[in-house]
Amino acid sequence: MKKVLLLLMFIPVLAFTQPKEVISAFRVFPVPGKALEFKKALIAHVAKFHTTERKWRIFEVMTGPDAGAFHFVEGPGSWEAWEKSPQITDLHTSDWDKTVEVFISKTTSSGYSTYQAGMSTAKQTDYADNIILTHMYIKPGKIDKAWDIIEKMKKGWELSNQSMAVYSASFSGEPQIITSRRLKGGLKELDGKSSDFVDNFRKANGPDSWASFSNNYEDTFERRWSEMLMLRTDLSSK
């Protein structure tokens, strides 16, 4: 009986400590020529509705095909926390539609991603103001090979002191692995580092590993692309 009571005492704790590994993200593109109006309206909206449970980290996309977009990140949380999170109110929706949406030309890339601790060299919440996202789309039937490749890359990241958080797209479109390189020291971390990673990859995985890696990568991923993002603290939740 005592064991049963002890177990019951811990049930709320176990529920409370479910891993917070899921983030939600979406992107918007301001109407051309209305960037200032968009930012002003967004700051006001965030101050009204996103200072408690539903906080936003907002990035500006600086390079790549989505340059000029704004990337919104909410979380991390558990799936249960997402299910039980406060619902978006009509007042919130009305404010967004009337004050922010009017300055948006399109919204894209809405979905969930799950943090992969075992494949990462950075903790989930070890944030940086400048990040590089790389999107890798997996060919059908190649998911196991994809994670084998990421595992080998992790060894190279570790030797190169690269702070990398790895995510997998969750029920949100094509199978995708996303790496987020956190530039803790700023953009200067990018100076002369590409060759260092290749050398460290070989040190970690064997002298002939890079050639094998290149062949396996082509066979495993359909396509990939990278982009640089900058945190906009002036727009994000306080």
Please, could you describe this protein's structure?
The chain is of the alpha+beta class and 238 residues long. The protein folds into two domains: 20-113, Alpha-Beta Plaits; 115-227, Alpha-Beta Plaits, CATH 3.30.70. Helices cover 37% and strands 29% of the residues. It contains seven helices and eight strands, in the order H-E-H-E-E-H-H-E-E-H-E-E-H-H-E. It has helices spanning 2-16, 35-49, 79-84, 90-100, 143-159, 194-205, 209-220; strands at 22-30, 56-61, 70-77, 104-115, 130-138, 164-170, 176-182, 221-231. The protein has an eight-stranded antiparallel β-barrel. Helix 5 (143-159) runs antiparallel to helix 7. The radius of gyration is 20 Å and the shape is globular. The protein starts with a helix and ends in a 7-residue tail after the last strand. Mean pLDDT is 91; it is low at 1-15.
Please identify the oligomeric state. single chain
What would you report as the Rg, rounded to the nearest angstrom? 20 Å
Head-to-tail CA distance between termini: 48 Å
**Category from helices, strands and their pairing:** alpha+beta
